[in-house]
Amino acid sequence: MRDGHSDLMETLLPQLALDLSGPAPAELGRLFDVPVTRVHLESGFGGGEHLIAMALADPDLGLIGVEPFVNGMAKALAAIERHGLAGRIRLHNADSVPLLDWLPPASLDRLYLLYPDPWPKKRHWKRRFVDRANLDRIARVLRPGAEFRFASDWADYVDWTLARLLAHEAFRWTAATADDWRRPWDGWPGTRYEAKALREGRVPAYLRVERR
């Protein structure tokens, strides 16, 4: 990690990190230093490319980013400082599950899970983030009509995720044509994981489901 990034982990991260030891505010907009009209969460933001792009594209949007790995968090902190986004971003540098359990019901306008670890070996499938318990958690924190968006370059994990979403009574798949899952949604900035997948010949898929 660069020296500057290390300094941000010690100075900026404590300012932006969510404190889960107490109750969450009933209105998530209170987490931020400036007024926001909507709140999105990205679980496992990697290097932060998508998180930062969302913040830059919409000045009324509040964002919660989750990333347990130090290097990814440090890169995101550097971008947050560079673009002056600290007022509208809050961070959690650990697993998403405690955060999802902490958030109030029906408090998020969108949740992203982009290129999660696919755990490709069958004996590791139980470690995949998408399971019934976590979909229950996601459904609880999304407002009616809000979206859960998922992207992956592992066809098996895409099939796995879609099967569980279709079986869950809280979600409705909104796709009408094949292009609705073959092409990224509007405003997609791309990520380094996506670029690597394309270089290696894997084709990403982009799923969108609506909270009923």
From TrEMBL:
Protein name per Swiss-Prot or TrEMBL: tRNA (guanine-N(7)-)-methyltransferase
Associated pathway: tRNA modification; N(7)-methylguanine-tRNA biosynthesis
Catalytic reaction annotation: guanosine(46) in tRNA + S-adenosyl-L-methionine = N(7)-methylguanosine(46) in tRNA + S-adenosyl-L-homocysteine
PROSITE patterns: SAM_MT_TRMB
GO CC, alphabetical: tRNA methyltransferase complex
EC number(s) per entry: 2.1.1.33
Pfam families reported for this sequence: Methyltransf_4
Record-linked SUPFAM superfamilies: S-adenosyl-L-methionine-dependent methyltransferases
GO MF entries: tRNA (guanine(46)-N7)-methyltransferase activity
Source taxon at top rank: Bacteria
Organism in which the protein naturally occurs: Prosthecodimorpha hirschii
Keywords tagged on the record: Methyltransferase, S-adenosyl-L-methionine, Transferase, tRNA processing
Source species taxonomy: Bacteria, Pseudomonadati, Pseudomonadota, Alphaproteobacteria, Hyphomicrobiales
Role of this protein: Catalyzes the formation of N(7)-methylguanine at position 46 (m7G46) in tRNA.
